[in-house]
Amino acid sequence: MTFFGLAAVNDLQPGEKAKSALNRWKDLLFSVFAFPVGMFVVLLFWTIFAYDRELVYPATIDTFFPPWINHAMHTIVLPVVLGEVLVQPHTYPQMKHALAALLVVGLAYLSWIVWVYLTVGIWVYPLLRHFSAAGLLGFFFFNMTVVTLLYLLGDWINSHVWRKDKAK
Predict the structure, then answer these.
(1) Taking the model in full, what pTM does it have?
(2) How far apart are CA 147 and CA 39, in angstroms?
(3) What is the residue range of the signal peptide feature (predicted)?
């Protein structure tokens, strides 16, 4: 959401200097967060949902959130981020900066999940209650590996689609 808001503001900015700075932020947000995290949410959610819906989106939630909201959160993201990478070139940051940013955001999100559990005594995602401490570490490490691979995929798609543009 932040990425698309920033993209809209960037398009409205007069002057190339302001656009240049906003473009760098827009590219960073898209390449490091919107694409890999958005793709990850879609892939992980629907994989687990297909295995056992109760682990990520219990049926009791349907009384509060109709199915269209579930698809707005867990499906629409895929065509939107793929569309963005296909219609707009992005400058990807250096790998070490991108991975550091992914790690910081991943650890912050993980900290929030654990904080909620320690404070309230329930896991944000019902799936997590089925893991031991070692299993949780393995699951989180696996997730960060997948997000990193999705970052690399986004970089590859961007480079492949916009290769002609970069040669000019």
Answers:
(1) 0.82
(2) 8
(3) none
> Domain span at residue 14?
2-167
Backbone angles phi, psi at 123, to 5 degrees: -85, 140
32/105 Cα distance (integer angstroms): 10
Helix ranges (DSSP H) in the chain: 2-12, 16-28, 35-52, 67-74, 77-87, 95-120, 133-161, 163-167
∠ CA 96-86-50, rounded to 5°: 80
How does pLDDT run across 113-152, given as a tens digit for each residue?
999 999 999 999 889 999 999 999 999 999 999 999 999 9
Selection from 111, 90, 114 nearest residue 34 by Cα? 90
Residue in 44, 64, 71 with CA at minimum distance from that of residue 55: 44
More confident residue, 16 or 79: 79
